[in-house]
């Protein structure tokens, strides 16, 4: 009924075309789901009468049964397919396309920022023209352009050579237009020649390829890269060294990013203050964060990450093979926008990235100080990734770079190292049939980062807001010593997987309160959450921590919330001791 009303209003407003986005069709759908899809459009057929109707799919191949269902809809005028990520869909179209229907051919990549291979796209379009007819073929992007930055014109400081390899939303519109004109016999030879030259430059540039990195990443494929001993043996060795209480408390990494802190970083980047002034300011902030945690009596500390702008950008700025935009903002979620790094070449770590600050923080306290790193899968999934090699190869390269950092942290006396993989689940392919391959190389990438450390070095990882129940075995396979994971915002759905019999022997800290809310949880509320965890998890593996980092919160919220968290942990420790 709602769709009927919307369609009627669009008709009344003079619309002649309506687009329905149906990306769910690229998933592995059951027959009853496809039947429901057909029934829905049949129900709307009378309301759509007199309109041109386009159904768009994107982000992956459309399975053969879904393609057959979609192209049999009588109420639909046109079909849009992602031919950038849907190469098998191209073969389906060539093997049979409904007569008299329009094909919106998504040949220009709407999800990444690389310039299109115009010659290849034109050849694809010409082959399709013979199938669907010249007057029924529409040149299109593979999906909405909301996933890429707006305009390269705004990037006045970007390296000219790398800039020539890129196309943001405005440039992609120009590419679509140029392809359409070429298809109509009005090819802009100069534009196509400049595109070919840029592609050749990218393929041959020594900035892209590092033979040493390529060899090291290739060598990884034949090995499993696991730590030598079991997690239970490692936890015993770590406990002897760390001597932590039952239900140890910690936070996830970041502390509030104040206006003053952002000003210091901004002025240092603009060279308005000296390196010495910057270092002193950051040292003072770390000292404040350490003191706060000691006063709160938190067991495993963090340095608060005052030197970091973003958990991916900070590392990308120190790794080779990355470049950054000044205005390449894209929507992340809600009203939040980010500037993803661009991975254009082979990735390596020229110098230590976090060791200086972590060692400084550890020198300020006798308590364990966590070294804080972003994991390779998260760096990959939250960047614009090069498209000239498989994603897993790039991920392995990043893993090797992080591995060097882990080993330097360990050599520097850091006994607890957290490697965040907030975006592990986010990278899952839409097709379930492709999940296993992705999870295999993603989990392997994580293990690569820490496979060489001693048993006494405790490896943590953290995962943010998502439903992890369906990939819990892959999480276990990561072989981390401790995982901190979202729990409170999803109404403790994570715990259901353990109630269903999944055995988890490593340390785990399901978040006890939601840091994305300014609300301060009471001690009683946190204690209740911990007790619910204890009903399904062993006392000796349970940690107490917030859901995520504290970067977005204010100290007026953080201090009382953490106070209540620590007091709840102490209360339950006392109850457990009394019960024994």
UniProtKB/TrEMBL annotation:
Q: In which pathway does it act?
A: Amino-acid biosynthesis; L-methionine biosynthesis via de novo pathway; L-methionine from L-homocysteine (MetE route): step 1/1
EC code(s) of this entry:
2.1.1.14
**What are the required cofactors?**
Zn(2+)
InterPro entries, from UniProt? Cbl-indep_Met_Synth_N, Met_Synth_C/arc, UROD/MetE-like_sf
Q: Which reaction does it catalyse?
A: 5-methyltetrahydropteroyltri-L-glutamate + L-homocysteine = tetrahydropteroyltri-L-glutamate + L-methionine
Q: Which GO terms describe its molecular function?
A: 5-methyltetrahydropteroyltriglutamate-homocysteine S-methyltransferase activity; zinc ion binding
Which intervals hold domain Cobalamin-independent methionine synthase MetE C-terminal/archaeal?
Answer: 247-570
This protein's source sits in the domain of life called Eukaryota
Stated family = Belongs to the vitamin-B12 independent methionine synthase family.
The name of this protein is: 5-methyltetrahydropteroyltriglutamate--homocysteine S-methyltransferase
């Amino acid at each position: 009924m709602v769709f009927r009303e919307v369609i009627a209003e669009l008709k009344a407003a003079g619309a002649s075309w309506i687009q329905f986005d149906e990306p769910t069709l690229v998933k592995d759908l059951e027959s009853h789901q496809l039947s429901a899809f057909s029934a829905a459009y049949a129900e709307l057929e009378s309301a759509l009468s007199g309109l041109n109707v386009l159904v768009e799919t994107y982000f992956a191949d459309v399975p053969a049964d879904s393609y057959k269902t979609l192209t049999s809809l009588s109420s639909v005028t046109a079909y849009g397919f992602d031919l950038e990520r849907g190469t098998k869909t191209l073969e389906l179209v060539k093997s049979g396309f409904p007569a008299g229907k329009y094909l919106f051919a998504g040949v220009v990549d709407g999800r990444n920022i690389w310039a299109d291979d115009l010659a290849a796209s034109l050849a694809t379009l010409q082959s399709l023209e013979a199938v669907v007819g010249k007057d029924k073929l529409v040149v299109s992007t593979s999906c909405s352009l909301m996933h890429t930055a707006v305009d390269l014109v705004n990037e006045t400081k970007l390296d000219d050579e790398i800039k020539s390899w890129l196309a943001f939303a405005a440039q992609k519109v120009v590419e679509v237009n140029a392809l359409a004109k070429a298809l109509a016999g009005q090819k802009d030879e100069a534009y196509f020649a400049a595109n070919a030259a840029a592609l050749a430059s990218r393929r041959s540039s020594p900035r892209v390829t590092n033979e040493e990195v390529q060899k090291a990443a290739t060598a990884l494929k034949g090995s499993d890269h696991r730590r030598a001993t079991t997690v239970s043996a490692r936890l015993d060795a770590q406990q002897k060294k760390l001597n932590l209480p039952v239900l140890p408390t910690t936070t996830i990494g970041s502390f509030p990013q104040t206006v003053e802190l952002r000003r210091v970083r901004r002025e240092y980047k603009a060279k308005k203050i000296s390196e010495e002034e910057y270092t002193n300011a950051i040292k003072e902030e770390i000292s404040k964060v350490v003191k706060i945690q000691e006063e709160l009596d938190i067991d495993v500390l963090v340095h608060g990450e005052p030197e970091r702008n973003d958990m991916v950008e900070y590392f990308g700025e120190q790794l080779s093979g990355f470049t950054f935009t000044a205005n390449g903002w894209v929507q992340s979620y809600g009203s939040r926008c980010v500037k993803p790094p661009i991975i254009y070449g082979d990735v390596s770590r020229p110098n230590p990235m976090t060791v200086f600050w972590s060692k400084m923080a550890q020198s300020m306290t006798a308590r364990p100080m966590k070294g804080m790193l972003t994991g390779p899968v998260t760096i990959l999934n939250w960047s614009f990734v090069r498209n000239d090699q498989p994603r897993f190869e790039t991920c392995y390269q990043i893993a090797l770079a992080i591995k060097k950092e882990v080993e330097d942290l360990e050599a520097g006396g850091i006994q607890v190292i957290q490697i965040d993989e907030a975006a592990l689940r986010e990278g899952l392919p839409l097709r379930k049939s492709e999940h296993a391959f992705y999870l295999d190389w993603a989990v392997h990438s994580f293990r690569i980062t820490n496979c060489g450390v001693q048993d006494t070095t405790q490896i943590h990882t953290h995962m943010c807001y998502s439903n992890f129940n369906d990939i819990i075995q892959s999480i276990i396979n990561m072989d981390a010593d401790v995982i901190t994971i979202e729990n409170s915002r999803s109404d403790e759905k994570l715990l259901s997987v353990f109630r269903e019999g999944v055995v988890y022997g490593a340390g785990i800290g399901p978040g006890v309160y939601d840091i994305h809310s300014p609300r301060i949880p009471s001690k009683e509320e946190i204690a209740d959450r911990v007790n619910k965890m204890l009903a399904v998890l062993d006392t000796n593996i349970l940690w107490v921590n917030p859901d995520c980092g504290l970067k977005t919160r204010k100290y007026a919220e953080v201090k009382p919330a953490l106070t209540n968290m620590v007091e709840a942990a102490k209360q339950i420790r006392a109850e457990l001791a009394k019960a024994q």
